[in-house]
Every structure is written in structure tokens, then in C-alpha cells.
Design a protein that fits this description.
Uracil-DNA Glycosylase, subunit E, about 190 residues, 3-stranded antiparallel sheet, alpha/beta
Length: about 190
């Protein structure tokens, strides 16, 4: 007889960083109608992450990765190619970003003022799936102050570039994988 998972609002799990076995936890929770709404590598000892589990909101629809802007040398879709940001996102998502998500940059070249804030508001209201703001500037445009926490259909991660120090921690990488992978639709 199949069992159904029931979890009160804001149940906390402490997950040991065991690589792929830890990632399987997110799959099991998703299958049972639960989701990780906040994931943090801030436990008393290294090798663990803390996750908040709640009932899954209906997040059917495509995943949208929102970057800040292209570098001076960049062109084409956001997070395309084989650059450090695309490689990091592939590690976090479990697949190349353009294979599992739509991508857009919040800023056009040399754009300033309120246009990016308006664009963030429009995306939040109209995008039919989950939105991941990549980097602090984009997260703030969406009204988010924390990484690895969902606020409605929008969540944020640190910038996926190789220069961001969050990614030096294996526990932070696991926390981001646990946060993002349930949002990826096959």
C-alpha cells in the first residue's frame, strides 16, 4: 500500500552531504508533493545542510534563469556557451542550462533607471513557472534579500560565475543543487 507523505508547514531537515544520495532526497520529496523552500549550509558542523520542507506549490511550467547582463565580450542567450557561469549552472541543475530552462538578462547593454525593476515585476507576474534570479543585483530587482529561498515563484542563487566565493563550499553547492533541481522539469 503506497504511503503519502505529510509534513507540517516549515518542517526542517538536516541533510548530510553525501553527494548523489543527498540529491535523491529532493526527488523523493517532489514525488510526494513536497518541496524544499529554503536551503542553507549553515549547520554547526561542515558536511550538512539545513532545509525547510513545505507542501509544493503548483510550479508547473518552464524554469526561467535571469542573469544581470552580458559581459562586454558576451552575446547570444544568457548563460549560453561554455563559460564559467554556464558550467556552474549545469553542475547545479544537472543538465545544460539551455536544455532545461529559458534564459534572459534583466539589463540590456548600458541600461539604467527603473526599466530593469519593471521588467522583473512583469516577469514575476506573467512567467508561468519558477524564476531563478542569478546574482545579488538581479535578486534585489525581484525584491529578494536571501539566496536559496523561494518567495512565491521566484528564488535566487549567488551569481554562478567562477568569481563568486559561495561556490568554494561543497555544502553550499549541495544546498543550491537541492534548491534548484526540483524546479527542473523533465
Amino acid at each position: 500500500m503506497p504511503t503519502t507523505a505529510s509534513a507540517p508547514a516549515d518542517t526542517t531537515l538536516v541533510i548530510q552531504n553525501t553527494g548523489d544520495r543527498a540529491l535523491a532526497i529532493a526527488d523523493v520529496l517532489t514525488e510526494r508533493g513536497l518541496t524544499l523552500t529554503a536551503v542553507h549550509p549553515s549547520t554547526p558542523e561542515p558536511g550538512y545542510v539545513t532545509a525547510t520542507v513545505t507542501r509544493a506549490e503548483d510550479a508547473a511550467g518552464p524554469l526561467l534563469l535571469v542573469g544581470e547582463r552580458h559581459s562586454a565580450a558576451g552575446s547570444g542567450p544568457a548563460f549560453s556557451g561554455d563559460g564559467p557561469s554556464a558550467r556552474r549552472l549545469e553542475q547545479l541543475l544537472g543538465a545544460p542550462p539551455l536544455a532545461v530552462a529559458e534564459t534572459v538578462n534583466l539589463y540590456e547593454q548600458a541600461e539604467a533607471g527603473l526599466a530593469p525593476l519593471r521588467r522583473a515585476g512583469e516577469l514575476r507576474e506573467t512567467w508561468p513557472g519558477r524564476i531563478v534570479a542569478c546574482g545579488r543585483t538581479v535578486a534585489r530587482a525581484f525584491g529578494l534579500d536571501e539566496f536559496l529561498v523561494w518567495s512565491g515563484n521566484v528564488g535566487a542563487i549567488p551569481h554562478p560565475s567562477g568569481r563568486c566565493r559561495y561556490w568554494n563550499s561543497p555544502d553550499y553547492v549541495l544546498a543550491a543543487q537541492l534548491f534548484l533541481r526540483p524546479a527542473v522539469r523533465p
